[in-house]
Design brief:
The chain has helices spanning about 15-25, 45-50, 70-80, 100-105, 125-130, 165-190; strands at about 5-10, 30-40, 55-60, 85-90, 110, 135-140, 150-160, 195, 200. With about 200 residues, it is of the alpha/beta class. Helix 1 packs across helix 6. The longest helix is centred in the C-terminal third of the chain and has 24 residues, at about 165-190. The radius of gyration is 16 Å and the shape is globular. The chain binds glycinamide ribonucleotide.
């Protein structure tokens, strides 16, 4: 157990990426342990997923804090108390403050449902459809001070079809998200990432 990577997973909603991380841990592909799941939404289905697998959950409601800094300082406290090595944003719909980013510098990963740097922010799939791209996909990246601007770890592309809706495209992208997020975390766990500026090389 000693050498398992300790994860803190932050969610706001359905938690299907959380589920794929749990599944990949349980099948032995991902050498990690989820120490804590934190949700800023008390109704997030991801809470049920975590509980089903015996993972501790903390709910932090946005409205219970005076400001973003207070919210984030509580987040830092919980994650540090759980000795978290790597913070995983899995559909966590909040922008993190600078003190949080400093507390976990190069130790926060996010998954975004578009091929960055295209379509950052919210509704990446809708933005892609409206733009009329023929290919979209998803990106796992480290989090920096910008919105979805951090160094890219893995991307996966999917085709966009003429009759796609936001739902059909999102479902196609989500399937790839569930594949590449655990893979990116495992690369980190294995110490395979060579980070130079904003370029990340995966060592063999
Ligand atoms: C995923 O598609 C994720 O890429 C996206 O939210 C969804 C969460 O799904 N994240 C963002 O848009 C972040 N900007 P999940 O709760 O089922 O994992």
């Amino acid at each position: 157990m000693a050498d398992l990577l300790k994860l803190g997973v932050l969610i706001s909603g359905n938690g299907s990426n959380l589920q794929s991380i749990i599944d990949n841990i349980e099948k032995g592909f991902l050498k990690a342990i989820i120490k804590i799941v934190i949700s800023n939404n008390p109704n997030a289905y991801g809470i049920t997923r975590a509980t089903k697998h015996g993972i501790p959950v903390v709910i932090l409601k946005n409205g219970d804090f005076k400001n973003k800094e207070d919210f984030d300082s509580e987040l830092i406290k919980i994650l540090k108390n759980n000795s978290v090595d790597l913070v995983i944003l899995a559909g966590f719909m909040r922008i993190l403050t600078s003190p949080f980013l400093k507390a976990f510098s190069q130790k926060i990963m996010n998954i975004h449902p578009a091929l960055l740097p295209s379509f950052p922010g919210i509704h990446g799939q809708k933005q892609a459809l409206e733009y009329g791209v023929k290919i979209s996909g998803c990106t796992v990246h480290f989090v920096d001070e910008g919105v979805d601007t951090g160094p890219i770890i893995i991307q996966s592309a999917v085709q966009v079809f003429d009759d796609d809706t936001e739902e059909t495209l999102s479902a196609r992208i989500l399937k790839e998200e569930h594949r590449i997020y655990p893979q990116a975390i495992q690369f980190y766990a294995e110490g395979k990432m060579e980070i130079k500026g904003r370029k990340i090389r995966i060592k063999n």
